[in-house]
Design brief:
CATH class: Mainly Beta
Number of helices: 2
Structural class: mainly beta
Shape: globular
Strand content: over 45%
Number of strands: 17
Radius of gyration: 19 Å
Helix content: under 10%
CATH superfamily: monomeric porin ompg
């Protein structure tokens, strides 16, 4: 049964995108075309340490449906003392993302295709050292103030999300899923919860961001491979992850997004808290002109 899981996951992905035609999914469609600019700063903290991410991007929306964005994350990593690692920082892999959105009374559909160039340092977990891609699609539908959603994607790396900057990155094919709902408690405030599953297939290489002090890992260290070795190559099992998240989000006047969240990785037994602050620089600039 375990050997059939990736095939089953791919089948579900086809179903989800098929329904959508009759995922860190794209943001709501722009009201008009033009240059876009966005700045995001976030962090995830857990027992393995803290990872900070400054992510500026600039793009162009050709219309309310289609656009692209170019950006590059900058990481600041502060491992826990128990990992025997030192702090690190540096540029991650630059990315180019294409998004397509189709709002509809029956169901909203969005899809995002992202490709990266191997620029970051793989020895510090800032890159896999290879070009990567991720294609994620999302469908959602609002029922009064409740908005259920489903996301499905394929990739050759494990994607981070705004709710969870992982203490590692991977190289190897996987399918990934996320489903849940958000609830609007006030005009610009919502809460939500979701579950996720990362289903790798074939050989995987895992790069730790909480780099061990010694090449062979910290003496006596137990647990996942990213706590024992900086780089591990093995079967699909080393990269499998599943869990759930909950969050609080505020987005006043389309200029600022604030998100606070909690994520539980069941596979790795890891509890993480996170925050994200996003600034829509285009909207901010236009507001300053008025």
């Amino acid at each position: 049964m375990a050997g059939r899981t990736p095939l089953f996951a791919s089948f579900i992905f086809v179903i989800v995108t098929g329904i959508a035609s009759a995922q860190k999914a794209p943001r709501p469609a722009a009201a008009e075309s033009g240059i876009t600019a966005y700045l995001q700063f976030g962090a995830t903290a857990n027992s393995d340490g803290a990872i900070y991410d400054l992510n500026p991007s600039i793009g162009y929306d050709f219309n309310s449906h289609f656009g692209l964005a170019l950006g590059a994350p900058i990481y600041f990593i502060r491992p826990a003392a128990s990992t025997g690692s030192s702090a690190a920082s540096g540029l991650g892999d630059p990315y180019l993302a294409f998004h397509l959105r189709y709002p509809n009374e029956m169901v909203n559909f969005a899809t995002l295709l992202t490709g990266t160039a191997p620029v970051g340092n793989s020895k510090e977990g800032l890159s896999t050292g290879r070009a990567t891609f991720d294609w994620t699609s999302r469908i959602d539908h609002s029922i009064s103030k409740l908005t259920p959603f489903v996301e499905a994607g394929i990739a050759n790396t494990t994607p981070d999300s705004s709710l969870y900057l992982r203490p590692y990155t991977t190289f190897g094919f996987n399918t990934h899923f996320r489903g849940g709902a958000s609830y609007q408690v006030w005009k610009f405030v919502s809460v939500g919860a979701s579950g996720y599953d990362i289903l790798p297939s074939g050989q995987q290489t895992l790069f730790s961001r909480v780099t061990p002090a010694q090449a062979g890992g910290v003496a006596g260290q137990h647990g996942p491979s990213f706590l024992r070795n900086q780089q591990t190559t093995g079967t699909a099992g080393i990269a499998h992850d599943d869990g759930f998240s909950s969050w609080f989000e505020a987005f006043p006047q389309r200029r600022v997004d604030l998100q606070l969240g909690f994520t539980r990785s069941i596979a790795f037994g890891l509890n993480s808290i996170s925050f994200n602050l996003g600034i829509n620089l285009r909207q901010l600039y236009r507001s300053s002109e008025n």
